[in-house]
Amino acid sequence: MKAAEIRKLKAEEIRNNLDEKRHELMNLRFNQVTGQLTDFTKIRSLRRDIARMETILREMESAGAVEGVA
């Protein structure tokens, strides 16, 4: 997912996608340990997507675009 696509989403949608990506990353790591994973680039791609989402979410929070931020 590209940064421009993420920026178009609402904060709650980004959080939901972030949870899904983290769960998918956990599953890929289990597959890697058990020897079932053949495409290791998926892990790297997911990690970068997660970092992108966290960064954009933080930018939104610091700009005050997200409600309920302390």
Structure notes:
The protein is mainly α. The chain has a single domain, classed as Helix Hairpins, CATH 1.10.287. Helix content is 74%, strand content 0%. It contains three helices and no strands. It has helices at residues 3-7, 11-34, 41-63. Helix 2 (11-34) runs antiparallel to helix 3 (41-63). The longest helix is centred in the first third of the chain and has 24 residues, at 11-34. It is elongated. It starts with a helix and ends in a 7-residue tail after the last helix.
Summarize the structure.
The chain is mainly alpha-helical and 70 residues long. 74% of the residues lie in helices and 0% in strands.
Structural descriptors:
70 residues, mainly alpha, Helix Hairpins, 3 helices
The low-pLDDT segments are none
**β-strand number:** 0
Total number of domains:
1
Termini gap: 28 Å
3D shape: elongated
Total helical elements: 3
CATH class: Mainly Alpha
What's the helix and strand layout?
Elements: H1 3-7, H2 11-34, H3 41-63
